[in-house]
Design goal:
ADH-like_N; Rossmann fold; 309 residues; alpha/beta; Lipid_raft_assoc_Zn_ADH; Quinone Oxidoreductase, Chain A, domain 1; NADPH:quinone reductase-like Zn-dependent oxidoreductase; NAD(P)-bd_dom_sf; oxidoreductase activity; six-stranded parallel sheet
């Protein structure tokens, strides 16, 4: 099969070549990939740390070529969206059936390919906040793929959404179109407290966001776009000063049990137009180097989609 293979001597660290077809385990389906979406983490760290010849990629949408031998998952011919720790940047991938969501017939599989990491991370983060109807939710780093989905999903869940971005003047209109009620440059700019936080930035912004968290609230750390650590000031956790009963949590998406229903629900929402996939770059996989450069240089806000083949 053809695939984008790690080759750090090539532009973007990848070259289009051939490699052996994957051999599915009994609980895996073989999927013919139609499109994949890129994530900043995999292009920033995955390519740098993988051996030459490896096939990377987390997100892919396509059609089931061969159903799982154990009888689980969708039948051959079903359009699907898939998540796995590797293998998306190729014509074929073998995927655990618990990480496969079914897609409505006729849906744009390029748009659907944005769902796995960005959409599912946002959805699971919001689940961690508990009921959000009528509550105030802050999303930091809202112009990224996960942040954009988090803004939309929080709004669909009935929350009043505050979004932060490094350039509110440039991105304010688009974030309000996604569902943000307020757009700020920094969590420290917030006058009022929030009931829940989905943080995509880390570092000082996570610390500042936690300072705005109301009693009983939860901050979910999802992304780490900054290189700095989290240094809380002395007294940040003193219970006798009203700073108690607030929590910080994190999760690893691939450790979440049975993501298939989430992936299918998100795919249907994108296909129906209820969620905007926020595609800001799309092209053939021979243009991967351009998309990767845009991601690494932070020129791309939203998702980059490669159409395979």
């Amino acid at each position: 099969m053809r695939a984008l293979l790690v080759d750090r001597s090539a532009p973007g660290g990848l070259h289009l070549g051939t490699t052996a077809d994957p051999v599915p385990a009994p609980h895996q389906a073989l999927v013919r990939v139609t499109a994949t979406s890129l994530n900043a983490g995999e292009v920033r760290f995955g390519i740098a740390n993988a051996p030459d010849g490896a096939v990377l990629g987390w997100d892919a949408a396509g059609v089931v070529e061969r159903a799982a031998a154990d009888g689980t998952g969708p039948a051959a011919g079903t359009p699907v969206v898939t998540l796995a720790p590797d293998g998306a940047w190729a014509e074929l991938r073998a995927v655990d059936t618990g990480l496969i969501g079914t897609v409505p017939p006729g849906a744009d599989l390029g748009a659907i390919s944005t769902v796995p990491v960005a959409g599912a991370s946002a959805l699971r983060a919001l689940h961690r906040l508990g009921p959000i109807l009528g509550r105030r939710v802050l999303v930091t780093g809202a112009t990224g793929g996960v942040g954009g989905y988090a803004v939309q999903l929080a709004r669909l869940g009935g929350a009043s959404v505050v979004a932060t971005t490094g350039d509110p003047e440039r991105h304010g209109e688009s974030l309000r179109a996604l569902g943000a009620d307020e757009v700020r440059a920094d969590p420290a700019d917030l006058a009022d407290q929030v009931d829940g936080i989905v943080d995509m930035v880390g570092g000082g912004q996570l610390v500042a966001a936690y300072e705005r968290l109301a009693k009983g609230g939860t901050l979910v750390s999802v992304g780490h776009s900054t290189d700095g650590g989290e240094n809380f000031p002395f007294g940040a956790f003193f219970g006798n000063e009203g700073r108690h009963d607030r929590s910080i949590t994190a999760f690893y998406l691939l450790d979440c049990p049975d993501l298939a229903p989430d992936l299918g629900w998100l795919a249907r929402a994108v296909a129906a137009g209820r969620l905007d996939p926020q595609i800001s770059w799309r092209g053939g996989w021979d243009g991967a180097a351009d998309a990767i450069a845009a991601l690494l240089e932070r020129r791309l806000h939203g998702k980059a989609v490669l159409d395979i083949g």
